[in-house]
């Protein structure tokens, strides 16, 4: 009799609405919650992707604007020559020449340039005679080479002081200054190459107690 009552009591204890089929969903509830979380994560990822794509589009647009504005990497002097600064006025004398003074070490050069066939006269002599070394003539020709003006200007220069190397540097400095005055649009190119800057390097003075600026006398122990 006791065994017969137990099933009845169990049936009475369990609610009438609950069945084995209704119990099963409760056991599967964690799995459903995990699925819901996965679906939410996918939705958030899908929403984030368009935002990232919009940001990428903005960056590409800014890059395009930079290209239009001319933000290019650093290049040679010809590429650096592009400048937004206003051009200076052309400076010519009564004879249509541009004049400038060049300096290097102890040498000072007065230089006049005018359109011609590329003849260079230094102290009344041709450059091949005055500057016999090819390297010195190459130094003088650098301002014309960098601006693509070789053989288009005649140069008349008078130079005093220093040696041949210093005089060649002074003439080069004067040509660079005069060329920028005759054609102001070339100033940026010449300046980018560093030809408008006066080279301040000079011979170091001799010190007392030494043979030269740095050279010491020979040491004798006895």
Output the strand order for the largest sheet: 1-2-5-3-4
Model regions low in confidence, pLDDT < 50 over at least 5 residues: 18-27, 55-59, 68-75
Largest sheet: 5 strands, mixed
Roughly what is the average pLDDT, rounded to an integer?
A: 79
Percent of sequence in beta strands = 5-15%
Instruction: Please give the count of helices.
Output: 8
Net shape:
flat
The protein's oligomeric status is: single chain
- Order of SSEs, N→C? HHHHEEEEHHEHH
Question: Any overview of this molecule?
Answer:
With 222 residues, the chain is α+β, with helices and mostly antiparallel strands. The chain contains 8 helices and 5 strands; from the N terminus they run ααααββββααβαα. A 5-stranded mixed beta sheet has the order 1-2-5-3-4. The longest helix has 41 residues. It is flat and about 100 Å long. The termini are far apart.
Summary of the model, kept short:
The chain is of the alpha+beta class and 222 residues long. It is 48% helix and 13% strand.
List the helices and strands and how they pair.
Blueprint: H1 2-13, H2 20-27, H3 29-69, H4 77-80, E1 98-104, E2 107-115, E3 120-122, E4 125-126, H5 127-130, H6 134-146, E5 153-160, H7 164-182, H8 187-192
Helix pairs in contact: 6-7
Task: For the structure shown, list the relevant keywords.
222 residues; alpha+beta; five-stranded mixed sheet; 8 helices; 5 strands
